[in-house]
Amino acid sequence: MPPLNSLLESDEIVKEKPVLKGFIDLMKCGVASTVSQPKFPRIETILNEELGKAMYGDQTADEALENAAGQGQAILDR
Questions:
Q1: What domain range includes position 12?
Q2: Which of 10, 12, 55, 62 to pair with 27, CA 20 to 30 A apart?
Q3: Is 78 in the same domain as 44?
């Protein structure tokens, strides 16, 4: 997802990646949070990668969440 609202509001992004239309519409109600867990950046990267695979049809949403949870838990257990 683009990091700037101006990019989210651009018609070009939907033309280039139509799959993002629904997510862009929902961004209006999204909120950012800060996480104090020092391992979170690595877990967030995994979550983004796994959810990206689901958005592009490489796996189901359930598979993405299961994969991310397993990998995230492994990081937390270290």
A1: 1-31
A2: 62
A3: yes
- Looking from the CA of 35 toward its CB, the CA atoms found within 13 Å total 10
Q: What is the pTM of this model?
A: 0.57
d(CA 5, CA 27): 9
Q: Which amino acid is at 32?
A: A
Residues 6+ apart with CB under 8 A from 7: 13
Taking only the tens of pLDDT, the chain with its 78 residues reads: 666 777 777 888 888 888 888 888 877 766 666 677 899 999 999 999 999 999 999 999 999 999 999 999 999 999
Handedness of CA 73, 74, 75, 78 (dihedral sign): positive
Query: How many domains is the chain built from?
Result: 2
Classify the C-alpha dihedral 5-41-76-49 as positive or negative: positive
